[in-house]
Amino acid sequence: xxxxxxxxxxxxxxxxxxxxxxxxxxxxxxxxxxxxxxxxxxxxxxxxxxxxxxxxxxxxxxxxxxxxxxxxxxxxxxxxxxxxxxxxxxxxxxxxxxxxxxxxxxxxxxxxxxxxxxxxxxxxxxxxxxxxxxxxxxxxxxxxxxxxxxxxxxxxxxxxxxxxxxxxxxxxxxxxxxxxxxxxxxxxxxxxxxxxxxxxxxxxxxxxxxxxxxxxxxxx
Length: 220
Prior knowledge:
220 residues; Rossmann fold; seven-stranded mixed sheet
């Protein structure tokens, strides 16, 4: 299988990661970010989280720094909006997106899945597409009680060592989530393995995305 287009370091210099909650980015695309930065350590990363509490903000800061340790620059923005209430804070969230748009010109945007059943996730997706209309946007997936995993159409094969690193970092950083019955290494590993099987990854694991629009330009 050919190398994914998104890992072409000659074309992608800035990555924007958007997450409604403090661990969403790491769960949804942490392995992809680790792989991307391993191959292109000078990439600039803008990492945005919209909801947090004081405890979770400290975890999110640590998580972002550890997942992007190879980045050329990390622009970390963690806001303190209320978890579960983003659709009711629409004006404030929209204003934050407009500010991000003024500050960042990403080559790649990683955001939530359009049909995610969590209301906060859906709003972030809607405003992503509303704000970044001429960008490559890949929508990541979050396993959850709602059972909303879809049929992705874009995959990033990641090494076994990177999969283990992703899961170990999640367990080490997000101590506040350990009492949740879904926040377990075997769940995260299972999804990596299923997606790896679907794309015939040589490493047997992968992260999956929904790519709604991709512009393919012929060579000069």
